[in-house]
Predict the 3D structure of the following.
Amino acid sequence: MSGAGELSPLIGADEIARRIDLLAEQVNTDYADKDLLLICVLKGAFIFCADLVRRIRLDPEIDFVRIKSYGNNDASSGKVEMLKDVECRVQGRDILVVEDIVDSGLSMAFLLRELAGRDPNSLRLAALIDKRERRQTAVHVDYPCFILDAGFIVGYGLDYAERHRNTAGIFSLKSG
């Protein structure tokens, strides 16, 4: 996908908010009386994570990681790099990773392996979008907001070449 493309509305802001409300209620139930550490995957998940954490009635600790596998392309390079690691203690904690989209699964498989090796009490994954079109490795999304089969999407934190993150909804990006 090169250059600018046409944005076609896919999921509106109201529907996103409704789904995050439901996800937060499930997190509140599942993590009651637990030592919850939310780990937000930068850059794409920052909007989703902020909206989710404001709806969680618990008092989780929040940390951030940054991994990279896309660059400025619309497909994973297959090579995953850790650009920023967590700073909080993981061992013995209940970890909820918050991601924007699980697509090929390569980045999340890498991150979940890294975190699992640090001996957390539990390790689960929340994703705004669980997209299965290009899944190359098995990754279970414990808390998906939306499940999509195909398409290249942007908005609500999701980007193409660092653009389109700031839209309130999620859009399909068609090459133009």
Remarks:
- The beta strands are 5-11, 36-42, 61-68, 81-84, 94-102, 122-131, 143-148, 153-154, 170-175.
